[in-house]
């Protein structure tokens, strides 16, 4: 089984849909997985699984906002297209961190 760490900037519609389905009311501290990366930095992520992969989606304020604002309008969403990405505008406040 493939394991993938995904930043919110590279979320596909498929992964975002899985996140929204798994955490329809948002996520809490108990849902967050914490681990150290290769640079010994602590990373916080949410886990979602498909049949062939486990995705760890890095947690950020932008991820929470994206999940909140995600609209599953069937006219705009093609569930068969895994390669399409969700466009997320830059947040100047997070760049300052």
Automatic annotation (TrEMBL):
Bias type Acidic residues, positions: 69-79, 88-97
Region of interest (Disordered), ranges: 67-97
Domain of life: Bacteria
Name this polypeptide is given: DNA primase
Organism: Sinomicrobium pectinilyticum
């Amino acid at each position: 089984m493939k394991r993938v760490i995904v930043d919110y900037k590279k979320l596909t519609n498929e992964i975002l849909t899985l996140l929204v389905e798994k955490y329809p009311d948002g996520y809490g501290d108990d849902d967050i997985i914490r681990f150290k990366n290769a640079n010994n930095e602590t990373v916080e992520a949410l886990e979602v699984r498909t049949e062939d992969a486990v995705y760890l989606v890095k947690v950020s304020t932008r991820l929470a906002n994206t999940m909140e604002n995600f609209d599953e309008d069937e006219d705009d969403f093609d569930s068969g297209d895994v390669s399409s990405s969700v466009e997320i505008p830059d947040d100047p406040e997070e760049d300052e961190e």
